[in-house]
Model the fold of this input.
Amino acid sequence: MSKKPENALRLLIVDERVEDAEALVSGLRNAGIAVRPVRAATPQELTAALAGPSDLVLAALATQALSFDDTMQLVTGTGKDLPVIAIAEQLDEAQYDAVLTAGARAVALRHRPQQVLSQVRNEWDDLEARRAQRRLEARVRETERRCDALIESSRDPIAYVHEGMHIRANSAYLEMFGYDSFEDIEGMSLLDMVGPQHVEEFKQLLKSLAKGEAPPPRYELEARDLEGNAFAASMEFTQAQYEGEPCLQVVFRRQEFDPELAQELEELRQRDQVTGLLNRPTFLRSLEDAVDDAGQHKGHHGLLLIQPDHYQRLLQDIGLDSADALMAAIGHRLQEVLRGEGLDGRATGARFSEHTLAVLLRGSDYAATSALAERILSAFSADVFSIGTRSSVITASIGGVQIGEKIASVSQVLAKATQGVESSSGVGGNRYEIFDPAAMDRAEEEHVRAWVARLRDALDHDRFVLHYQPIINLQGDTGATYEALMRLDPGDGQLISPSNFMQIAEDHALLSEIDRAVIGQAIAVLGQRIAANRPTTLLVKVTQAALDDSGLAAFIGEQLQAHGVPGEYLVLELPEAKVFTHLKATQAFADAIGRYDCRLALEQFGVGLDSFQLLTHLKPNMLKVDRSFIEELPRNEENQARVREIAKRARELGIRTIAEYVQDAASMSILFSSGVDYVEGHFLATASPVMNYDFE
Done:
């Protein structure tokens, strides 16, 4: 998705059954979408929910208390841009048409979670695009107002023309042609401003511009004012928009002197007088054109920013009065490179700031941009620079960007190039660093391949290791209980936590093998503890893949028998969200491991729409309270109440509770008085590769 990872989808679910609503939420969370859900089942609940912020509505068609038509009326009545996706148990053509006619943007079948996920992603993307468009439209309107004010205050005669007719003109334009107000020329043809001898040729020019052909840089002709007086003029054309309509911006200039001289003056106006390169405003216009081409036509261009290394020290050596001479020498050296063989005039150089030069290389790929950066570095370091009456060796730091469709923003391009300059300079200079978005994709692919190979090696050579964190009973039981925390040991002494690789493992169907490797190792350790007359209960996390592994229970039974371990010492943990969306599979899994007396625990418990509804269908042996309720527990009365409720209701059902992530004594006191059975966290003991906690 195009969303930022920190953005959560504010989801409003209209559904009578909390289990079905929870399944929808869990399916989205399992797909990596952060969701903040609210459920409504009655008109009153929906009205209250709609008063708050929402991004998307999932509305079940099969509801009794709140019909889909009533839902759509309430949603539409808010006046909000709030897309509705209808959730159907089954669907025929007539019902599909009726739902869309009622105003739903999409329909998805409840038993097709990938379809629901796809529709949610599409509608959320579309909503964000509409919101972005509205923000852009507001900015465009503000920009148009500012531009209008600037045009009006400009001394250049400027007009906007649509299909050859005037639709806007500033005061300088009206004054040049002798008109008092724009009303005098509104709707007048631009041809009326042109001398009769130029009319036919000018008509052809307007026709070509209307077809989207590029305008000439400068068009010279004889113009006529209101009184019929002729004067030499030049025109410059730019494609523009006025009040949302495409048009031409025309700058009309009276020629009071020799055209060739005017051209020379224009050239001088675009140049930096010290280096002879383009100045910053002119270069920025070229850069904007290149970025637009990348965004609209998928063009590829390279930008380089170049800074002389140790600039302040150079100035101290040659004197501050020689700063211009220094930049002139550097500019001259750069121009020599840009005139070099193979560039074919595609490279444009500019003085971008006081001591930063810039180069735009049009139509270049990453290799060509890098090659030019290499040539510039070599040219700088190859020969001594002559700076007035002095000389010096000068190297450069270069930061570059490969401009393409993925980075079609001038601000992003300049930011990345600046970062490259700073990075190159920070490690001593005389080097370049070029950001290439496409290279990121290639690097990510290589990164994934490397991880898959590393995981395969870890499975083949037993490189998964376990650390153990004590779980302390608050009710007086001194039996040893630990949670096994899996780590990957790549062999260099730096252990890697699962968060770095489990998604890759899931994407490449390695979770089931990892589950078996971890469970097998845990059972072997339990066997060693029993042999040493130190029986221990061990909680081991398993993944969703365990629910689909039909042979896992038998594997567990074989390992328990081989190591002489009673099954009651092994507790397998599954996240609540995974269980909610795979309830039948979890029930079957619990039954299968129960045959060997192994127990089941639910972790991350309490964050669902109605977590205790799950316990009417499944009775685990333990519940691990989600850590979000334990963080800042002493200062959060709402979390304290939630923990007490979970502990009370779990005890009524004969289920033990565990609070993890305990960080302070105040939390311990609250948990003890709340009736929680076990606690775990760094305040008590950190995870260790050995089981050495004293439970007595």
